[in-house]
Write a sequence for this structure.
DNA sequence: CACCCCATTGATATCGTTGTCAAAGAACAT
DNA sequence: ATGTTCTTTGACAACGATATCAATGGGGTG
């Protein structure tokens, strides 16, 4: 017993097509007619039938979120942002996990998009850093928007964050607290964010006249375990740094665990900083000094620019860089 | 240029309707015909058009996951399980956050189901514990399956876990380690799991001849902060327990934080146990003794029984109780 | 006034399925 | 052989929207 266009057209005494014009905001509808139709729509509580729309218009009104293996809280925030952006737009979200290492990745995703008639993709790291993958999407005319792109192509749709500046600022903050021996744990090498954060760190120590010590710079992959292992490694060194900046909070937590197992106290014996402000940052003690990105807002914006493009409103909603916020907590001690 | 039923029907030299019969597994199709059609389907790579199917059949092929505010890692596991169960079934998942305290909850959800023509709901705590809400769904003939129901109605579809037994076992394990003074932090009062876990704890100490001490039994709500506050509270007591069992890991982590801030060492000065085996359980040090539920499997099963009902295979896939597993880690010390 | 143009509107076909119903043929009983 | 029932099949309508294209009418121009 759902209300259909036909019911509305009868109520407003116009043709079915005219109602369709109004609800799709098409041009060339007299103002009076439009008003009349909208009144009927509201009165009857009409909602267009998705299936019929998509059958006829060949659009699915579905966006897909592509991800490979990020941490769960990041994924949850991204999802939540996209859902909010989709609300009342008529678009829906499906979520698709994939394996960035698979050599079938490109064909799998193209097949996925075609099978489900996905209108657009939202791409997260590390897929967002794979140039050949993005090129494949373009070759198949698949629309997409990128969260955290490695290069900010003005042609493409993306949302980015100022990771370099944030890492620079955080490192400077550590230095301001009197530290000179500062270790660094790199993130997953395939994520461009890893390099931006690392460069921010490098430039900050350099500009403060601190020499880099590669004994204290370890490769991680954003996982708790990689942080733990890096910690074990560093604590075997002859000289131990007074502070360590890990490229994300999970790894910082890993370092904290390895420090505590060695009998070291944070921040008395070692200061620590992370990145992301994930839940774990304040669920351990001492709570982590870190950088908070507006992940939810970024994801929402990524969805919005994609939808704006579909609806022909690309002028109004554009790619954008978001600012991160420094959060200083107990894990950082003044020397 | 997608392949349609028409193409298949030409290739197999049968009518469109017969192809439809085959792909929907309807009765009364000759074996030979069926084989012929399936061969053509495979040869042409035919996939039915979802929009057309759902337009005509009035089904959306969409399930919705209803949740209010659980922790992110639980939600991620649930989602992941459902996605896996949906794969290759033709069903899709949409996720709907809601507010269990809202007095518009019931009408909102009914509206949501009707607007989106959702075929079935998967209901998580604490919504799964609201009898009147579930009744409303039944009154509106909305199909649903419950994760962690408060009462196991054999008529309804649900997946449950043996929280009572697990809490009993975990408490017994703590006692076996020599503890007699054991505190308990209750979970969110609206979650039936909270009561099951609490009862398991109560019965275990009782059966081991230990008297309950209400100074050490605090109300929490599953959040990190509520655990932290409960810890602060308990550590103000004249006498402090030698072990605390928190109804979930977040609260256990909160207690650990409050203990460490008081200068107490875990497990030297205080043993701790949690519940759920969430990521935080092994990202803090010492790692938490806890109970692991097969959340992903449970969620997958919840989706499966719902889909089985739609496909008329209810006999094969039924409601089920899942067993949890005790995980003993460093946070528990022998006295 | 005749003409054309453009804005507005509607009749009808169409998207790719499933539902209805009737027809054809096989199988069985009389 | 005839009638009856059951299995198998197909022709055609229908789901609820959008697309195409033609019709209508008001306004401007010469």
């Amino acid at each position: 017993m759902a209300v259909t266009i036909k019911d509305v057209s009868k109520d407003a005494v116009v043709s079915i097509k005219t109602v369709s014009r109004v609800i799709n905001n098409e041009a060339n509808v007299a103002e009076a007619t439009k008003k009349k139709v909208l009144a009927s729509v509201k009165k009857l509580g009409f909602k267009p039938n998705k299936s019929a729309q998509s059958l006829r218009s060949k659009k699915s009104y579905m966006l897909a979120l592509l991800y490979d293996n990020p941490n769960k809280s990041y994924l949850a925030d991204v999802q939540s942002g996209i859902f909010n952006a989709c609300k009342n737009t008529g678009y829906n979200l499906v979520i698709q996990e994939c394996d960035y290492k698979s050599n079938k990745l490109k064909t799998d995703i193209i097949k996925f998009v075609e099978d489900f008639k996905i209108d657009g993709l939202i791409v997260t790291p590390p897929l967002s850093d794979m140039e050949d993958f993005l090129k494949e999407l373009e070759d198949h005319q698949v629309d997409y928007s990128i969260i955290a792109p490695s290069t900010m192509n003005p042609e493409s749709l993306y949302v980015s964050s100022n990771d370099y500046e944030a890492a620079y600022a955080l490192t400077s903050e550590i230095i301001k607290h009197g530290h000179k021996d500062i270790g660094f744990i790199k993130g997953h090498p395939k994520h461009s964010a890893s390099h931006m954060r690392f460069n921010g760190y490098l430039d900050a120590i350099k500009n403060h006249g601190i020499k880099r010590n590669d004994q204290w710079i370890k490769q991680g992959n954003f996982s708790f375990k990689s942080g733990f292992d890096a910690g074990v490694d560093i604590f075997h060194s002859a000289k131990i740094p007074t502070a360590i900046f890990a490229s994300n909070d999970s790894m910082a937590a890993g370092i904290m665990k390895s420090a505590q197992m060695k009998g070291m106290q944070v921040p008395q014996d070692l200061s620590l900083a992370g990145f992301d402000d994930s839940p774990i940052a304040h669920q351990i003690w001492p709570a982590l000094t870190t950088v908070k990105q507006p992940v939810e807002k970024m994801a929402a914006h990524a969805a919005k620019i994609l939808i704006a493009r579909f609806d022909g409103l690309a002028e109004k909603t554009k790619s954008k860089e978001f600012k991160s916020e420094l959060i200083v907590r107990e894990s950082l001690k003044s020397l």
Summary: Chain B has a mean pLDDT of 93. The interface with chain A takes residues 47, 49-52, 54-55, 60, 72-73, 75-76, 79-80, 83, 92-95, 97, 114-117, 224, 250, 253-254, 256-257, 260-261, 279-280, 282-285 of chain B (CB under 8 Å).
